[in-house]
Write a structure and sequence with these properties.
By secondary structure, this protein is of the alpha/beta class. Helix content is about 20%, strand content about 25%. It has a 5-stranded parallel β-sheet with strand order 3-2-1-4-5, with helices on both faces. Strands 6-7 form a two-stranded antiparallel ribbon. Helix 1 links the parallel strand 1 and strand 2. The longest helix has 14 residues.
Length: about 150
């Protein structure tokens, strides 16, 4: 499987950036048949170390998403579309976003995974997915049928 990894937040030293770097390092260190492709904006690339074994796609944008997504900035539609075009032409089977704030529109990729960091929701409510076969006998075994809260 050819897996795309959004590298736009790797240059952040803390928070989402730390999470993303640790996850990418862990995934890259695993020997296997999957190929990791880090999609990164050109302004962020010099500040980032991409692990050996990962392919990279460097995209020309006007401003690094980590700066544009700040309180003082704004993300430009042209930059987000440039990232989307690069992903669409990379031949990926899955695109992974380690954070929502660097998300950009994706097409021509059959699977998409976005991590949502929402610590304020955890103590209030958590959600579990029940396998479809438990909900109705005719559904696919691996398809989540319903979600229900498991915490209070």
């Amino acid at each position: 499987m050819r897996i795309g990894f959004d590298g736009s937040c790797l240059s952040n030293r803390r928070g989402f950036g730390r999470f993303s770097r640790l996850l990418l390092d862990s995934l890259a260190s695993r020997q296997g048949k999957h190929q990791l492709v880090v999609v990164i904006d050109r302004p962020s690339e010099p500040a980032v170390t991409i692990p050996e074994g990962c392919d990279r796609v460097v995209v020309d944008v006007g401003e690094a998403p980590s700066a544009a997504a700040s309180a003082q900035g704004r993300r430009r539609i042209g930059d987000m579309l440039a990232m989307g075009r690069a992903v669409a032409s990379a031949g990926l089977d899955l695109m992974y976003f380690p954070a929502t704030y660097t998300f950009f529109p994706v097409w021509n990729v059959p699977r998409l995974v976005v991590t949502m960091h929402a610590p304020w929701l955890w103590p209030i409510r958590t959600w579990s997915f029940r396998p479809a076969e438990a909900a109705s006998p005719g559904c696919s075994r691996n398809t989540p049928q319903r979600a229900w809260p498991t915490g209070s």
